[in-house]
């Protein structure tokens, strides 16, 4: 089960990077301005190292999947988190990207989960980074990457808010 779940999540990330690259080309043709170039490599590294850490912790310390009642709860939470994540991505459509790319004079997206939450995708990713390791009792990975993600999100959200305030309606 571990390798199946790892494959699913890593495959998702690779597809998302492909979509992000396509959306980036489209956005730049429309005059997008990129913000947060300095912190972006740290975000990419953190996500890659998250999977390395999770796989290593499970393999080296022989971590097991949660026992049955907790297993159902954790998988249910991950499925709901995936729902929020993809609802967020589809709501942004061609504007979604892993980078902060803002097309000047566009309107902010206020549909889907963006009606109620400013950064629903970041919430979903934060939940993934804690739930996925907890599913396999990889507590060190859960704690370390939750902290790393929180620090990077503080920087990223501040930068994204500044970009949107400067360039969007």
**End-to-end C-alpha gap:** 46 Å
Largest sheet entry: 2 strands, antiparallel
Helix/strand order: HEHHEHH
- Strands of the biggest beta sheet: in what spatial order? 1-2
Structural class: mainly alpha
- Binned, the helix content reads over 70%
Unreliable stretches (pLDDT < 50, length at least 5) are: none
- Gross CATH architecture: Up-down Bundle
**Could you name the CATH class?**
Mainly Alpha
Radius of gyration, whole Å: 17 Å
- Count of individual beta strands: 2
What number is the mean pLDDT? 95
Q: Tell me the β content.
A: under 5%
CATH fold name: Four Helix Bundle (Hemerythrin (Met), subunit A)
Structure description:
There is one protein chain. The protein has one domain (2-167): Up-down Bundle (Four Helix Bundle (Hemerythrin (Met), subunit A)), CATH 1.20.120.1630. α2 (40-60) runs antiparallel to α5 and α3 (68-92) packs antiparallel against α4 (120-135). Strands 1-2 form a two-stranded antiparallel ribbon. With 169 residues, the chain is mainly alpha-helical. It contains five helices and two strands. 70% of the residues lie in helices and 4% in strands. The mean pLDDT is 95. The protein starts with a helix and ends with a helix.
